[in-house]
Amino acid sequence: MINDVAPLQLGKYNRLQVIKELDFGLYLDGFEGEEILIPRVYVPEGTEIGQFLDVFIYRDSEDRLIATTLKPFVTVGEFAYLKVKDVSKLGVFLDWGLMKDLFVPFGEQLSKMAVGRSYLVYIYIDEETQRIVASAKIDKFLPEVDPIFNERDEVELLPYEYTELGIKALINKCKIGVIYKNEAFRNVNLGEFTIGYIKKIRDDGKIDLALGKIGFDRIDNLKQVILSSLHAQKGFLPYNDKTDAEVIYSNLQMSKKDFKKAIGGLYKDKVISIQDNGIYIIQSE
Fold this sequence. Notes:
The chain starts with 12 loop residues before the first strand and ends with a strand. The chain has 3 helices and 18 strands. The protein has helices at about 215-230, 245-250, 255-270; strands spanning about 15-20, 25-30, 35-40, 50-60, 65-70, 80-85, 90-95, 100-105, 120-125, 130-135, 155-160, 165-170, 175-180, 195-200, 205-210, 235, 270-275, 280. It has 4 domains: about 15-70, CATH 2.40.50.140; about 80-140, CATH 2.40.50.140; about 155-210, CATH 2.40.50.140; about 215-280, Arc Repressor Mutant, subunit A, CATH 1.10.10. The protein has about 280 residues and is mainly beta. A hairpin with a 2-residue loop joins strand 17 (about 270-275) and strand 18 (about 280). The model has no long low-confidence stretch (mean pLDDT about 90). Helix 1 (about 215-230) crosses helix 3 (about 255-270). It is elongated. About 15% of the residues lie in helices and about 35% in strands.
């Protein structure tokens, strides 16, 4: 959100008034006598003294406050999945959409971060240096009190890491859960928000996730997937309960177990017929 009242918010968007113009840019009123430069390259055409601009505030390489109309991928107080651009003696630098890269100190890395790879990080202001930095130690930025979830809840997921068990994902920006690899029956792109569901809440508070709806709602959804495929293929699909599981997964993005439940439901509803060579949609009279 844009901040249109004092005080100035570092690492966030602010609405500031133009108070001075120079050849290399404009100066904005940063409150309490602070003048903040927005370089000429970021000034919208036709901007005049007295106008207000919506700008993002950060620090340049000399720790001076600077304004830009560019929109970074993330702001202070948020999580993001960002790529490492460079490594220094003190840490790594992430691409966050601005000319000055985002710094992650070595002490804020869970493991050695490599150039070209992306990681889930939290963006915050370091109290000692007052600089905008990032941390890969996600757990310490999650709420101390677990949020209240119920099984079958629909949630927003940010998948961010493959593990031996499956895919770790950030749930509603406040809790970590796991999508087990044998239940990831559709493509999952790390770093892209997606909708998921709470499958199980364990006694230790850990959460199992699902990409599709749970229970009867999930099977109803899979029935619609099969029907859509049938219509797209002129009423016939060359799959039945004897089809190899990998073929079903590759073409329909569901397990064979779920496929059998879904076609069983469609058969019971008299929507399809099941033959030796596949399934046919039953055309209504």
